[in-house]
Amino acid sequence: MKNIDKNIIMLGWVSFFTDMASAMINPILPIFVVGVLHQGYDKLGFIVAIATFISYALRLVSGYISDRYGIVKPLMVSGYALSTLSKPLIALSYGWKSVAALRGIERLGKGIRSAPKDLLISKYAKSKAEGKTFGFHKTMDIAGELSGTLILFAVLLFWGESEDILRTIFIATLLPGVFALIIVTFFVKDVPKTLSYKEKLSITKEDISVIKTLLFYFVFLFFLFSDAFFTMQASHVGIETFWIPLLFVVSTLTQTLISFPIGKLIDKIGYFKVMAMAYISALVAQLLLMWGSQLSVWVAYAFLGIFTVTSLNANRTYIAQFAHNKGSVYGVFYAGVALFAALGAMICGMLWEYFGAQEALAFSMLGVSFALIAYLLSIKKRVS
User: Fold this and answer.
1) CA 311, CA 84: separation in Å to the nearest integer?
2) Closest Cα to residue 174, out of 77, 85, 82?
3) All domains in the chain, ordered by first residue
4) Looking at residue 85, what is its pLDDT?
């Protein structure tokens, strides 16, 4: 952990426990909605869309506030508090609307804290080590996901997958959430006001250039299946519910193993080549998911993990290196993710519900393919 600030290490533990709690419910939430509550795939799509939009759109506002007024840690603490308190309440849901509302509140917390968190990381990162720093933080983040997923698998394996067990799991997320809230409140230092406060905030040419580059990522997220639909495809091809958490283990373990090396690779060869690797991984994941065998679905989760960690580390590092108003650009980045991923989830859910799984998969596959071709053509001169 050479060149990693102690404040970022503590923030890494905050993300570890928060993502442990999230990972305890993310693999089973689609099963809970469709299988236990007997709601349709279109309703699942709406839940994903609402949660995604709220999670990312609010980052635009929190990023602006962080840049303009220097308010960073208070936003982070309030965001973690909302997420901690809302997850267990899903146990009381008996319809898709209440799940959507609580999931929305939980994602609201993530939306409030995420851009300020990235701003804090970028401020405490050592010069020319931004990729390594974001790679370390993402490693802690994903290690938490891995731990939560393994806990979930053990619970389902030994106690079964009844409705009561699923609801108990939602309640149990309170414990790691409280650990995260204590650490961020008492052990994470705020950004010094002199580093963050701006009397007047204006978007610069550098900020606009960065935002234009991010557009390709938004398009990819529009077409790529979300993890909720990866889960339903796994169920569709016959993988039993208690194995579903291990699919997430495949994804999160892959991310844990490669996150730090990917961060170092970004520092070495640059953003554009690394993002090309990420997009190719997304295409391979979608191809394997469309293949339709149980084995191909398992491998698809590994490639989804490669895409997820590579693209997030690269984009966050790129903003840290080249944006002027970093908090605001992080906010724009997450708002773009919100809009495109939410619309994509809604469309995929409706296609699956009214036309079938293969039609939804074909829509996603074609879109990802065309987006990849467009990206490779656009960066040809940059990487030559």
Assistant:
1) 27
2) 85
3) 6-187+203-383 (1.20.1250.20)
4) 93
